[in-house]
Sequence to fold (451 residues):
Amino acid sequence: MRQAHSEELAPLAPPLWRQLQACAGALQMVLEGKNHSHALAAVAPALRPAAQALLFAVLRHWETTQAVRDLLVKRAPSAPVNALLCTGLGLQLLGADAMYPVHTLVSQLVEAAKHHPKTRAQASFINACVRRFLREEKTLMNQALQGLSAQWNFPLWWIKRVQRDYPNDWQSILQASQQAAPLSLRVNRRKIGRDALQQQWAEQGMLADAVGEDGLVLRQAKPVQAIEGFAQGWCSVQDTAAQLAVPLLIKGLQVRHGDRLKVLDACAAPGGKTAHLLEYADAEVWALDIDVQRCERIQENLQRLGLQAKVVCADVADTPTWWTGQLFDAILLDAPCTASGIVRRHPDIPLLRRESDLPALVKQQKRLLDALWPLLAPGGRMVYCTCSVFRDEGQYQIDSFLARNTRAVLRPSPGHLMPSRAANPSGLLDNAVNSFDGFFYAVLEQRNADV
Ligand SMILES: C[S@@+](CC[C@H](N)C(=O)[O-])C[C@H]1O[C@@H](n2cnc3c(N)ncnc32)[C@H](O)[C@@H]1O
Fold:
């Protein structure tokens, strides 16, 4: 079955040289440390879908592109020239998957250089580089692919960590992380049944496969605004691995006091899992996040879906500032992490992350776990998750938590889910089409005081 991808080009695209310019502008921003969403927000709306498709393709070949560029260029070019040259080289590397005939690409790249004041003077230099690559591709590629980073398109520290964490599966994990992701949606069961929506879409020729309890994965991606029911809140975009959080937290959980479950979504923005919680269970949900702007996104998302939570902007570990003293039946801790599991949808992550980010994040995850655990009612349940494949942020974090909290019990849990077929022994999701992101889940229960 062919998976179509959300970043595919719109049929009526603007001229290629303008798309290349837009892609290079966004790439330059990513190289300056901005994430891809931020960088693409600066692109004119008409060019954005095409610029995203090109940018993602270039980012997925980033380390090879750099290695080839270093062989072609003696002195570092200016930032705008470098971004345009790397855009051209990155797209040339696509080979059989090329979006455009290679000669069209080369001539349009030169056109793009000539049309911008910051690259105009270097148009012949860019032309010479990409044409030399065309002539000497085999030799240059042989040289460029000597290094592990260029072979796998990840920084060396990242490759070594995945090798160490998964000695048998590291290649398939890295490879799957560089594939485009399908468009996965979660059906809002409060508004419409999953089967009914699947049927309705099928009647309009939009085919989708059911995954998990509430998921539909489109076979042919579309802009969300063009999906029937999206504006009415019948569905939301959410990866199928992320859709496991709420059933793991809520299924089989008993209401202890009052008439509804009292649930804390501890790191909630932009509210994907908050919304799922409210769709799935009759619960009083507290949604906390430290980031004011991202808290606004929670409100917007809930509004579209017709749902309500108590949204609080706070450092969730600083409990005296927000906690009323009432224990929670369930706590979801979707902790900040390296996001090393979601590279399929965020191919800028390997370029933006530094190895030194990891210890700080691990420390922060530990701080959040330790601060929130006492807020759980006896017999209550906590789900700790991260969208990371690194064991330091998953299994090892939970191993050390269990060692220092003897009242915590680990229930049967998915553990590390991988964006590849080889490393998913849990059987929780069918990953035959590599249709989900890398994630970690641990389901923890508080032993009753009288046990
Ligand atoms: C992985 S994202 C959460 C995604 C969200 N659960 C969803 O499904 O849409 C992690 C979030 O943690 C928030 N965060 C980080 N440190 C925090 C803290 N100390 N207190 C509260 N939120 C925090 C970040 O602002 C970010 O929005």
Q: What stands out?
A: The domain at 242-446 is CATH 3.40.50.150 (Rossmann fold).
